Amino acid sequence: MSKEHDPGMSVIVKTVTRLTVGLIFLYGIYIILHGHLTPGGGFAGGVIIALSFINLDLAFGGGVSAKIFSKGSTSVVEALGAIMFIALALFGMRYGGFFDNFLHPDGNPGQLVSAGIIPLENIAISLKVGAGLFGIFLTLIVLQKFESEKK
Prior knowledge:
The longest helix has 33 residues, at 118-150. Helix 1 (11-33) runs antiparallel to helix 2. The model has no long low-confidence stretch (mean pLDDT 84). With 151 residues, the protein is an all-alpha fold. The protein contains five helices and no strands. 25% of the residues are buried. The radius of gyration is 19 Å and the shape is elongated.
């Protein structure tokens, strides 16, 4: 088969991607939710989740992300992450101090649900970072296609 009929990389790369992309995505969620207990958090988890989608695009060709995401949806998700982060900060100011841990003020070290708003802040940061990084990737892909068509 020619490359025009079968976009993306080889069968081996596609098979490995099919097997690992879900695990990569799940690992990103784990890093986000356990960011207050272990190194990592919203930034690292957002990058890992964005890279799982980038991996799909690289292995199967650029059309995969177009089937998953509509045009401009990365900007919407990125803005949602910023709004969520600011809203949580403002709620903290209203019910205590700046970025106050108003959901669970006296947490137990080492327990997952004892971190108050920190996991929610990590989720907001991961939305912002993941959508931003994936949006940058999509922009570079579109720019590359534009440059190759111009030649």
